[in-house]
Design brief:
The structure is a single chain. The chain is α/β, with parallel strands linked by helices. It has 11 helices and 7 strands. The protein has a 7-stranded mixed beta sheet with strand order 2-1-3-4-5-6-7, sandwiched between helices. β3, α3 and β4 form a beta-alpha-beta unit. The longest helix is centred in the C-terminal third of the chain and has 15 residues, at 186-200. The protein starts with a strand and ends in a 7-residue tail after the last helix. The relative contact order is 0.10.
């Protein structure tokens, strides 16, 4: 019999926390590993129990969800996959969460069957953002990596300025912020992004951030 997926809930709202517990207990391949009511407790319990999945509220007392992620990112030996749960989130926060190692971002008004699917997806090594499985994108990127061992910066022919723009996107900069940072116009930023999208085969900023993380573009130079 396959091992069950052990899940830890970190949320400060008792009703929502209890609802998640009931959902987990209703799935035959899920098991409740534990619960935490704030960010500090979440860190303690993750380190102690090392669950397969952490369902982490973005807004928590003591430490926010992003602060918890940042702390967990500093401990690469931990194998727990984290899914951020939130009522609302900005694209910049999604990118930041992924940069800190989150494998999924799920809105709290998402249908329960999609939350269940997202858990199974991240356990399977995929990503889930919003209401969509973006695992296909990640699998394509990973397949490209197995077929091509060259420096990805050289492979995709990104210029030094384009790499700087990619790094800024991963850090959550808006087009306006990027323009100010590099003393260029917003139209020039849009032109750079269009060329980058074409070169690496993505269609939006979130996909570019995921692409950059998986190909380790940030920090690389020709």
């Amino acid at each position: 019999m396959p091992e069950k997926i052990r899940i830890l809930i970190a949320d400060d709202h008792p009703i929502f926390r209890d609802g998640l517990q009931a959902l987990i207990q209703s799935e035959p391949d899920f098991e409740l590993a534990g619960k935490a009511v704030d960010g500090e407790q979440a860190l303690v319990v993750v380190r102690k129990l090392v669950p397969d999945v952490l369902l982490l509220d973005l807004v928590l007392p003591k430490l926010s969800g992003l602060e918890v992620l940042s702390n967990l990112a500093a401990e690469p030996a931990l194998t727990t996959r984290t899914i951020i749960l939130t009522a609302a989130i900005e694209d910049e926060q999604v990118i930041e969460a992924l940069r800190f190692g989150a494998k999924g971002v799920v809105l709290k008004d998402t249908a329960t069957e999609l939350l269940v699917k997202s858990i199974r997806c991240v356990v399977g090594g995929e990503y889930w953002v919003g209401r969509n499985n973006v695992g296909g994108l990640i699998q394509a990127l990973q397949l490209a990596q197995t077929r091509q061992t060259d420096d990805p910066v050289q492979k995709f022919a990104l210029t030094p300025r384009e790499l700087e723009v990619v790094a800024a996107i991963v850090e959550g900069y808006s087009n306006k912020d990027i323009a100010k940072k590099f003393s260029i116009s917003e139209q020039t930023v849009k032109h750079h992004l269009s060329r980058i999208f074409d070169k690496v085969g993505v269609s939006n900023r979130l996909e570019l951030a995921l692409f950059s993380v998986n190909h380790q573009l940030v920090g690389k130079r020709n």
